[in-house]
Specification:
- Residues 223-257 are annotated as: Disordered.
- InterPro entries: CobW/HypB/UreG_nucleotide-bd, P-loop_NTPase, UreG.
- This protein has a 7-stranded parallel β-sheet, with helices on both faces. A two-stranded antiparallel ribbon has the order 8-9.
- It has helices at residues 33-44, 61-69, 86-92, 95-107, 147-150, 153-157, 176-185, 200-218, and strands at residues 21-26, 50-56, 77-81, 113-117, 134-140, 160-164, 192-194, 233-237, 240-244.
- It is α/β, with parallel strands linked by helices.
- The protein has one domain (21-229): Rossmann fold (3-Layer(aba) Sandwich).
- Bound molecules: guanosine-5'-triphosphate.
- Guanosine-5'-triphosphate (GTP) binds next to helix 1.
Length: 257
């Protein structure tokens, strides 16, 4: 199920010479981010010129997986080794990723779509709108049926939430419909897609959403939004620590209280 993918736009012609749509894919470890990207490349490569940036902490494993899957020419898949907690490189200081995206766009111009895969992290990691125009957050049923209820910025406010690996529901005692309903309730009407790479109907819906978003981008009708702020979190300090939150309108500030 996906809540309404609108009809493709009619009306004014797309803007000429516009840069690629930059689409982030984030979510906890192992939920299927690389598989979603491989699926999109496989299905859409004859309609869109695609490039991929992967983020891993210490390796280029995700890039190697995608290259070996043969879903795109290998040189269009580039790895960023963040060397730090994944959210640092996709949210706090996006410089490494932004340079990688811009280099890829320059080397293979004109690209239509750049997919940026986050390193697998927890429920709080989301992309900065300084790096991507839109983002997908990926959960999977094997992580537990209650995860969607736990919320967080990606679950609540990513442009699309995927509940992945729905083919596994019966094997892990998860009621997929219930999980999707919980996710939908957490998102105030924003789209939720139940996905399995083994279910072509769900793959088609994923592709339809990405093509629709690309059209929105071309027509200048997509407005990037920030799914942040992060949930309140704890900073350990010598002799103690403190909890703080980032509210959406304030600077990213780490002053002890
Ligand atoms: N049954 C099933 N397995 C899937 C599906 N999608 C992905 N997987 C499997 O889930 C595992 C993790 O998939 P990945 O795509 O590597 O997940 P990831 O989120 O990129 O992983 P990290 O980069 O390590 O965080 C792999 O063994 C995939 O084959 C699906 O739709 N159904």
């Amino acid at each position: 199920m996906i809540s309404d993918v609108p009809e493709p736009l009619s009306g004014p012609a797309p803007r000429a010479g516009i840069r690629a749509l930059r689409l982030g894919v984030a979510g906890p470890v192992g939920t299927g981010k690389s598989s979603v990207i491989a699926t999109l490349c496989r299905q859409l490569a004859d309609r869109l010129n695609i490039g991929v940036i992967t983020n891993d902490i210490y390796t280029d494993e995700d890039a190697r997986f995608l290259r070996s899957a043969g879903v795109l020419p290998a040189e269009r898949i580039r790895a960023v080794e963040t060397g730090a907690c994944p959210h640092t490189a996709i949210r706090d200081d996006v410089t490494m990723n932004l340079i990688a995206v811009e280099d890829l766009e320059a080397d293979f111009a004109p690209l239509d779509l750049v997919l940026v895969e986050s390193g697998g992290d927890n429920l709080t990691a989301t992309f900065s709108p300084a790096l991507v125009d839109a983002q997908i957050f990926v959960l999977d049923v094997a992580g537990g049926g209650d995860v969607a209820r736990k919320g967080g910025p990606g679950i609540a406010r990513a442009d699309l939430l995927i509940v992945n690996k729905i083919d596994l529901g019966p094997h892990v005692d998860v009621d997929v419909e219930r999980m999707v309903a919980d996710a939908t309730a957490a998102r105030d009407g924003a789209p939720v897609l139940a996905l399995s790479r083994k279910r072509p109907d769900t793959v088609e819906r994923l592709c339809a959403w990405v093509l629709w978003l690309h059209q929105q981008h071309l027509h200048g009708q997509h407005v990037p939004t920030d799914p942040g702020p992060m949930a309140p979190h704890f900073h350990a300090m010598p002799g103690g620590g403190y909890v703080h939150a980032h509210d959406q309108d304030s600077e990213h500030e780490h002053t002890p209280r």
